[in-house]
Each structure stands twice: as C-alpha cells, then as structure tokens.
Amino acid sequence: MKDYNLIRNKIREIKSLELEYNYEQAERIASKLLSLELNDGNQYYHLSSYYINTRRYEIADKCLNKALALSKDKALKTSILNKQNELEKRKNGKMAEYQPAAKENRIKYQQFMNSIGMDTNLVKAKTQIAQKKKVKETHPKTERTIKPQFRSFVAFDLETTGVNHLRDSITEIAAIRVVDGKILETKEYTFQELVHPYEQRIPRRVEQITGITNEMVADCREVWEVFTDFAKWVKNDILIGYNCMSFDCKFLAHASELSNTIMTNEFFDVLYYARQMKHKINAANNTLTAVSSSLDIVNPQAHRALADAITTAKVYLKLLDLENGHR
C-alpha cells in the first residue's frame, strides 16, 4: 500500500468520491491512508483537503504539518502554507465552512457528518454573511478601459470546466505580455499554468474541446495559488481578453475571492472592439475564431489559453492598425 502510484490513485479516488458525494467510501480510503506513514508531502497535502471539507481541522492540520516536513519543493511549500492559512481562517470563523451547493447534496453531506459525530447544523451564518460583505467591499468591480489606443498590455485567457462562474472552475490560466505593440513570446513574458479545478471534474465534452483532461490537472495547484502568482506577474498592466467582461472576468473575480488577492487592473474586451470595427472586417460572426480568420491570423491551438491569448493580442493590434488607417 506504500507504493507511490497506488497511494496517489487512492487520493484521486477520494476526490472523485467526494465529487459524487459518496462520503462513506471516501472515509474508508482516507482512514486507511491516514494509518500509514506516507513518505510524500504532496500526498499529505491532498489528503488534508478531504479532512478540511469534512471539518476535521485537527487531522487536516497534522496532515499539513507532515506535508511541510516532507516537502523539498518550493512551490509545494508555498501551497501548504497557503492551505494552513486557509485552515486557520476556517477554524477561527473568518472563512465559511465547506458544504455542497445543491440542496440534495447538502443532505447527503449532513447525514454523513452526523454519522461521524459532526453537527453540521451549527453553520456560522453570521460569519458567512460577514465574509460575503468583506468580499464585496474589498474586491472592486472590474473596470473596463474604453479607448483602445494603448500598445502595451497583457493579453490573457482562461479555460474552465463550463460557462457558469458560480458553479464551474478554472482549469488553465495563460497570458502574454505585449510591449509597444510587440508580442513577446518568450518564457519571461509568458504565463501559463494548468489549475486543479476547485470542487469540480472536467466534463468529457469539455475535455474534447480543450484537450485538458482530469488526469492532466489532478496534481496541479489550486486556483487560489495560481491566481496569486498570476496577479503578481501581471502587475498593474492593462489586461485584454476576448469576451472577457462577460466570461473570464467573472471567473477571475471568484478566484480573487478564494485567494483573498485583489486585482485593480483595467480590462479591455476585444470582442467589443471587433463589433465596433465590423465595417472594416469581413467576419462570419463575432467569435475569436471567425474574427481572427477574417484578419488572416492563424490560431495554432484554439481553446487552449495561451494560444487564444496570443491570438487575442494579434487581433487587437490588427484592429488598432485598421482604425488608425494602417494595413
């Protein structure tokens, strides 16, 4: 049972069972793993998530301490410290305790929690209200840049498990930095990272569209960890996206809440610009695929975040040249 791959698969199984709200079976596997002396910090880190979600904070704390002691990877250590911080907030009532969103799943969760002696009726309603109020006050509305005359910016894109920002989760964040109209496609000026989807699995149809599978994101960092690094990387640059005001920005706002990291950047939606410039382009519709194609811009990997971000940057610069009378 101490085989690394076997244990890793068991931890993945716990997560899958949680998503199916099969807590009894997840508990059996988690208890068995807990009885072992694991020799990998990443395993203890992921095991702690199960115990956080089922509100056994002392057990989760022990898992995270063991994870920290075993970890030699700097990125993993940062993730562990962030999770310990999250754990303290939950223990002190500064962060709402986990419970499923849907009513029928909350019933399954409550029945299981009661079966292990945890009273889920004691939900901190006042704390949840205070937390929501805090989020509303400290995370300002996304600002939209009106005039498209800038030539230095960061183009970004997200991939997600679905289209509902309240229910679905980010699976990839990518961005490219543009300086004085030059797209800098080198490692230093590129941000790209797959993300472990928060409390979600990637539906099969989405896997087929994006090429991002559940296996690819199973061991990736959580969204609050990746988003924090993304915000630091972007700095104060203008962010541009395609249909970002209606889609990507809503997912970013949720990630901002989860990470307690505030972004005050200005955003520009290239979709709006394409609509304004429709008299100068011959696009079949307003999708990124159609608009880029009409401008003779090739997207080498549509529906992957970095390729879409680079394509968005190219479309914006081409539209800007058209508006200014350049070809």
Q: How many helix segments? A: 14
Order of helices and strands: HHHHHHHEEEEEHHHEHEHHH
Low-confidence regions: 122-140
Radius of gyration: 22 Å
The CATH class label of the largest domain is Alpha Beta
State the share of residues found in helices, binned by percent.
40-55%
At the fourth CATH level, what is the homologous superfamily of the largest domain? Ribonuclease H-like superfamily/Ribonuclease H
Report the β-strand fraction as a percent range: 5-15%
| Main β-sheet description | 7 strands, mixed
Count of domains? 2
The CATH architecture of the largest domain can be given as: 2-Layer Sandwich
Distance linking N and C termini: 64 Å
Number of strands: 7
Mean pLDDT: 87
| Estimated structural class | alpha/beta
CATH topology of the largest domain: Nucleotidyltransferase, domain 5
Folded structure, characterized:
The chain is α/β, with parallel strands linked by helices and 327 residues long. It folds into 2 domains: 4-115, Tetratricopeptide repeat domain (Serine Threonine Protein Phosphatase 5, Tetratricopeptide repeat), CATH 1.25.40; 139-323, 2-Layer Sandwich (Nucleotidyltransferase, domain 5). The protein is 51% helix and 10% strand. The protein has 14 helices and 7 strands. The protein has helices at residues 4-19, 23-34, 41-53, 57-70, 74-91, 103-115, 125-138, 204-210, 214-217, 223-234, 248-259, 270-276, 288-294, 305-323; strands at 143-144, 153-160, 170-179, 182-183, 190-194, 239-241, 266-269. Strands 1, 2, 3, 4, 5, 6 and 7 form a 7-stranded mixed β-sheet that branches. Strand 3 (170-179) and strand 4 form a beta hairpin. It is elongated, with a radius of gyration of 22 Å. Mean pLDDT is 87; it is low at 122-140.
